[in-house]
Amino acid sequence: MALVLNDEQTMLRDTARSFLASEAPVAALRQLRDANVADGFSRELWKQFAGMGFAGVLIPEDFGGVGLGHVEAGVVAEEIGRNLAATPFLSTAVLTASALLNGGSDAQKAAWLPKIAGGEIIGALAVDEGAKHRPEKTALQATRTGNGFTLNGAKTFVVDGHVADLLVVAARTSGQPGETQGLTLFLVAGDAGGVSRERTVMVDAHNAARVNFDNVQVDADAALGPVDGGYELLERVLNVGRAVLAAELSGVGGQAFDIAQAYVKERSQFGRIIGEFQALQHRSAHLFSELEVTRAAVIKALQTLDASPEKAATIVAVAKARAGASTELAVQEGVQMHGGNGMTDAFDIGLYMKRARVAQELLGDSNFHADRLARANGY
Amino acid sequence: MADLETFRAETRAWLEANCPAEMRTPTEDEEDTVWGGRNPTFRNDAQRVWLERMGAKGWTAPEWPAAYGGGGLSRDEAKILAGEMRDLGCRSPLSSFGLWMLGPALLKYGSEEQKKKYLPPIVRGEIRWCQGYSEPGAGSDLASLQTRAEDRGDHFLVNGSKIWTSYADKADWIFCLVRTDPKAPKHEGISFLLFDMASPGVSTQPILLISGKSPFCQTFFDDVKVPKDQLVGIPNKGWEIAKYLLTHERNSISSMGGRAHRPVHEVAAAHVGLNDQGLLDDNLLRGQIARLEVDEIAFEFAMERAGDMAKRGEIHGAYSSLLKYYGSELNKRRHETLMASGGSDALEWESDRSEHGAAPRAWLRTKANSIEGGTSEVQLNILAKRILELPGA
Ligand SMILES: Cc1cc2nc3c(=O)[nH]c(=O)nc-3n(C[C@H](O)[C@H](O)[C@H](O)COP(=O)(O)OP(=O)(O)OC[C@H]3O[C@@H](n4cnc5c(N)ncnc54)[C@H](O)[C@@H]3O)c2cc1C
What are the residue boundaries of the Acyl-CoA dehydrogenase/oxidase N-terminal domain, all occurrences included (chain A) (predicted)? Predict the structure, then answer.
């Protein structure tokens, strides 16, 4: 398949681009941050997202969505990245929707997917327990009790966790932390008894939470997908999230690049536009090359998720590893090329640096994904 | 050598007796830094006592002449003092633009009266200085600065504005580059003035940084009267002083590349954990940290070697650009690695648990290292031109 957007995808991109630029520009993020809005996102905007079909991008029409694919989800995410929009797109429309689509029973899908597509509920995937993303180290215990399970443990870095109506929780039903066998995903209501949530205000002013589970009781039918055999499902869902997040990062890096390019064409020192200095020209050209190589990996990963998801793991690792690294370079160069202005809150470039750091860490950083590639290739 | 060994023993004994226990722990945050000044802020009494004792001995400025309040130590003695302080974990008693920048320039270019008047209060941390160099239109191209100082007979009248003036709102005095001859070529009409920030006509406007703090300001001068004896060196020849001072600023920024901090691998071990062999449980991060540490150790010796070369008069005048470039880039890399080591714990911005975002705020602050004191690009241009003598550079 050609590694470019087709006509419909290009149209979607143009629509998403103008919609986000007008409805969710960087100024909107500043406002959420400065007003310290407890939700951390605009519910009104999320309704509009649903109206545009973005909330249901991955959800089939039978369940109220628009039935598009991962490439399309990536197209929306890239525009989100360009505008640093704080929305539940990744947590809800991508991760939670994918978990239900890939692991849900008919009843679970019917219960939740239309509400996601309609922008009526927020979902969140709760995986990490330590400072680094290590899904197989899941320790949160789900013990069989009565007709269901009792959950005990703690999750961290749960994107949109404090506002989620529905939590998808990775839990250990057998085995030891570090083993892939013995994991199970559960659907837990955000306000279930025993769940306590703390919003963690993050450097990038996007949402995250710590979520504690203290004897949380769920029925047997709260299990999503196979009991004890949930790792494969979890990985599939995470890979969708990682690829879409790589697309978002690609947008963050692309826009940081554009902002810095505009600046070096405007600022002058020594009686010249600073963009005339070859030192900055070469670094700009180098950065452009890095971003282009990342774009290729990202679209390949998204297309592979659509065409043959069982083969996507390796290319997703490549895409996320690259997107993290090249976007970090883009924001570092962006700040540096702004000189003193880059260090100020008044200029947007610093906000891109903050978002890049969080998205780099989320769902595994460049080191994590390079390590996965090495393991996949047997070294 | 025997003398030096005596000096070492005496120094150690003095430090052990005089450095308060609280001043022997690693600094944790900005409030652990003591800046002194007319209205000093001390977090605790130990900070005050430590500054007073070191200031009285002149050991805040170990190599400055005793006549101006300094320690009067030789280079070898100063190294011993620094080494003993490091071994005992003594904190630096005073951070000061006076010590790092203005003092060395005054020692070289100041009149005898100026040295006697301005240096001792710097040593004792009684006057806090800020640096009035950059302007909105004059950053990398500093020599194009426009702030005017007109000769009005018995005083200069200063008008204009400076930007990025670190701690201008907290400083007592400013050392300031001003244009005294607007008709001369840009490097030749600049003078070096000192004045009190409490002078009528001086005002400051803090600028919010990406770290969420506002330590620097835009500084405005509106008909500020400055007595004539506060000009350093020769009128219109201030550029030479400005450049000399910058070499000292660059040396002090480069020292951030050293290892006077909590080792990154300890931070990583706390957040990432160890595997069953007791090694960091993240192979690639471990490699990243190890390569950083290799460079940090070597760079420490590079700084020491530069000091030794300077003492023998065998150093190129532009060498400080090399140290500044390398040290500031190293410190940025260190904080990138710290952020990777802290993982999602290091992304929290406000909680008590994260000490109000100490890690990300410090990380963001380091991004200025390659901008302040002249950008990395400017340092590389200087190296290419002055040391490598590349054609056209
Ligand atoms: C935290 C902080 C504290 C500071 N404190 C002080 C202070 O106390 N007092 C003070 O006077 N100043 C201070 N500064 C200002 C600092 O010295 C300037 O920001 C710096 O010199 C760069 O100037 P500028 O910001 O105007 O950037 P510009 O000069 O506009 O530079 C923008 C970009 O262009 C690049 N560039 C410019 N010229 C060239 C060239 N010839 N070749 C290649 N690239 C080039 C730069 O490297 C940079 O990447 C501080 C700055 C910071 C960030």
Answer: 6-120
